[in-house]
Amino acid sequence: MSNTFNIRELNSQIQTYFDQARDILYDLHNYGYSSDRFEWTLAEQEDTNRLEYNIKKIYKSLIIILDAQKMHRVLDDLNSDFSKYEHVLTNHEYDNEHDFEKCDSLDCLWGYYQQLKVLFGNKSTLEEEIIIRIIKGLPRWFSDNEIHPTNENDIKTPFVRILKLVFPDVVTDFKITHRAINFQPDAGIKSLHTAFEIKFADTENEIKTAIQGLYEDIEGYNGSAEWELFYTIFYQTGHYLTEEELELLYNDVKAWKPILVTGIGNRKKKPEKDKKGS
């Protein structure tokens, strides 16, 4: 019991180190826009030192966990892979394709950290809790801003903007290829290997269609090596479906997390054709 508790406590610390490192990388990228070269150089050096500190803390924490669990082969692999970055520990570059600052040594540690998640139990991570809060807060955001969404894109735009405030490596223009077919989620958080699909429903029939569409998405996204967790946001404008009904439908699909929210909005109706002269 004590060992499990310590591992979970260490997991929380590692999460904090990763979060701090990502924030530092974000700041390091923004220094390039500073007009004061002297001030920028001092701040950059200070943040580079902080980045090195966090990376080393993560590395040492992973060693402690692997050694405690007698995972010596994985530990040897970690030491071997991480040694490649000994002299370039804090090197980073901007990833234009995915719009975030990339650090290879940090990505290396993140890969090993993902392999160890099973040791931390089924407790929700801080990131998952934040994501769920953001999703469930969407109806309130639309209501407070007096905006009536009319389709999936109206949901996607503010959702992505809010996500980026917390997760700077949010991407929107990417595809998942499976069996020669391309599937395109609405958004994704690259570092968390998490993708999002948005469904907008203004009638009971539309929510049924959305559910059917999700079954097809599950088949399409299944087996992706890069994207491991999928959230489907069901935004309904009326009480067409309950959370209990939704959970029953997807209870056995572990990689998918459907979340139902109800808020204001209505789908734009197509204008009727002028019947005059017919």
Low-confidence stretches: 1-5
In total, the number of strands is 9
Question: Span between N and C termini?
Answer: 79 Å
Largest sheet: 5 strands, mixed
Mean pLDDT: 82
- What structural class do helix, strand and pairing data support? alpha/beta
The percentage helix is 40-55%
Radius of gyration: 22 Å
How much β-strand is present in the residues? 5-15%
Write a compact overview of the structure shown.
51% of the residues lie in helices and 14% in strands. It is α/β, with parallel strands linked by helices.
What tags apply to this protein structure?
278 residues, disordered N terminus, 9 helices, alpha/beta, five-stranded mixed sheet, two-stranded antiparallel sheet, 9 strands, globular
Overview of the molecule:
By secondary structure, the chain is of the alpha/beta class. It is built from 9 helices and 9 strands. The protein has helices at residues 2-30, 37-68, 72-82, 104-115, 126-136, 138-144, 152-166, 204-221, 243-249, and strands at 93-95, 100-102, 170-171, 176-178, 181-183, 187-189, 194-201, 229-236, 256-262. Strands 3-6-7-8-9 form a 5-stranded mixed beta sheet, sandwiched between helices. Strands 1-2 form a two-stranded antiparallel ribbon. Helix 1 packs antiparallel against helix 2 and helix 2 (37-68) packs parallel to helix 4 (104-115). Mean pLDDT is 82; it is low at 1-5.
Q: What's the helix and strand layout?
A:
Layout: H1 2-30, H2 37-68, H3 72-82, E1 93-95, E2 100-102, H4 104-115, H5 126-136, H6 138-144, H7 152-166, E3 170-171, E4 176-178, E5 181-183, E6 187-189, E7 194-201, H8 204-221, E8 229-236, H9 243-249, E9 256-262
Parallel strand pairs: 7-8, 8-9
Antiparallel strand pairs: 1-2, 3-6, 4-5, 6-7
Helix pairs in contact: 1-2, 2-3, 2-4
